[in-house]
UniProtKB/TrEMBL annotation:
InterPro entries: Centrosome-WD_assoc (IPR052778), WD40/YVTN_repeat-like_dom_sf (IPR015943), WD40_repeat_dom_sf (IPR036322), WD40_rpt (IPR001680). SUPFAM superfamilies: WD40 repeat-like (SSF50978). Signal peptide: none annotated. This is WD repeat-containing protein WRAP73. The lineage of its organism: Eukaryota, Metazoa, Chordata, Craniata, Vertebrata. Pfam families: WD40.
């Protein structure tokens, strides 16, 4: 699904043929599929409106108007039959039921980086709250939205919450001004608290491993600390130095590749404005391009800004914001650095293939980069003109990849003979 101004376009993922075309009441700011892909939500924050469309019954639709309360966020519940709307100034969250048309209200939601978290099985929702200048967490049962647990957290200014994939532990972390991450059980008991250091900027990113055995905590000091699920103590930390000295670590560097020309004849078709690139293995010691952060300004570009585990738990990909062009891939079985990929431009986004350890990277240029344990490849996005890839998203099957620019999108189909394949045999795009 994609939106163009006030129109919602639903296409077939294989042919890109338009299946449905819906017209909303205003310009769409946010779209989201329900978990079963039967409904799609369109939020128009400026008007305080949400419209819901049915794929099975195109003539059916639903309109939710928050009125004077306004609207700043809207999302589905895991069952795909309830919509959670957050009003302006985070005064409340309104839960709308598509089945019974009933409405529930949840007060005191906290305006923070990540204030709502659902368990993977969809049974429970944790909500960060702020009451009387103090942080709390409430756990609700998603079937009837009844309060299960309510407890206060030992945080100065709670920044985010995240359930472990098994739904047994809730991670709660504090503002970047104080290094503190707390682990709570489902019934609200404090299992452990971890603090790496004091009197400096603290936690910047957090990620659970798919098996719930590891919790990776990215910090402003440029290190990732790995906590284990037995004692909740640190088992190792990963540094991100600007120079790689270990000869066992493979460092791939993107390099420009000049097009081959015929003898005296101009190339046909003419080359693009953006030249092709390839990866070269750098000799050790290898130096990475670093960025000097402006520490006198808010949100300095330092520390671990991105973390992601591979779906099989074998690898962890990270980005250190003051080494913005490099992606670090760590071996989680041996707890050591495995590969470093350095791009020509700063990395904007990366995401793991949901089915296998294959990482897709984009840098805002007209290329997409793929890495797997067998190697890596740089692929030019086909199509006329330049196509700056600003973000990307895998299909859950791992067979296709959506690339997004500011005004267009491209759907790429990956065909490989072997299950891994850094070598993409073919990559077709349609805009």
């Amino acid at each position: 699904a994609s939106c163009v101004q006030y129109r919602l376009v639903v296409r077939d993922v294989h042919t890109l043929q338009i299946l449905q075309l819906y017209t909303c009441l205003d310009q769409i700011q946010h779209i989201e599929w329900s978990a079963d892909s039967l409904f799609i939500l369109c939020a128009m924050y400026k008007r305080g409106l949400v419209q819901v469309w049915s794929l099975e019954q195109p003539e059916w639709h639903c309109k939710i108007d928050e009125g004077s309360a306004g609207l700043v966020a809207s999302c589905w519940s895991p069952d795909g039959r309830h919509i959670l709307n957050t009003t302006e100034f985070h005064l409340r969250i309104t839960v709308w039921s598509l089945c019974t048309k009933s409405v529930s209200y949840i007060k005191y939601p906290k305006a923070c980086q990540q204030g709502i978290a659902f368990t993977r099985d969809g049974r429970y929702m944790a909500l960060a709250e702020r009451r009387d200048c103090k942080d709390y967490v409430s756990v609700f049962v998603c079937s009837d939205w009844q309060l299960l647990r309510h407890f206060d957290t030992d945080t100065q200014d709670l920044s985010g919450i995240e359930w472990a994939p098994n739904g047994c532990v809730l991670a709660v972390w504090d503002t970047c001004l104080e290094y503190k991450i707390l682990l709570y059980s489902l019934d609200g008991r404090l299992l452990s608290a971890y603090c790496a250091y004091e009197w400096s900027l603290g936690i910047k990113s957090v990620a659970w491993s798919p098996s719930s055995q590891f919790l990776a905590v990215g910090s402003y000091d440029g290190k990732v600390r790995i906590l284990n699920h037995v004692t909740w103590k640190m088992i190792t930390e990963f540094g991100h130095p600007a120079t790689i000295n270990n000869p066992k670590i493979v460092v791939y560097k993107e390099a420009q590749k000049s097009p081959k020309l015929g003898l005296g004849r101009p190339p046909f078709p003419p080359p693009r404005a953006t030249s092709e690139s390839k990866y070269e293995i750098a000799s050790v010691p290898a130096s990475l391009q670093t960025l000097k952060p402006l520490t006198d300004r808010a949100n300095p570009k330092i520390g671990i800004g991105m973390l992601a585990f591979s779906p099989d738990n074998y690898f962890l990909a990270t980005r250190n914001d003051n080494v913005p062009s490099a992606v670090w891939v760590w071996d989680m079985q041996k707890l050591r650095l495995f590969v470093v990929l350095e791009q020509l431009s700063p990395v904007r986004s990366f995401q793991w293939d949901p089915q296998q350890p294959r990482l897709a990277i984009c840098t805002g240029g007209s290329k997409v980069y793929l890495w797997s344990p067998a190697g890596c490849v740089s692929v030019q996005v086909p199509g006329e003109g330049d196509f700056p890839v600003l973000s990307l998203c895998w299909h859950f099957s791992g067979d296709s990849l959506a690339l997004l620019s500011k005004d267009h999108f491209c759907l790429c189909f990956l065909e490989t003979e072997e299950p891994m394949g850094p070598a993409v045999r073919e990559l077709d795009g349609h805009t």
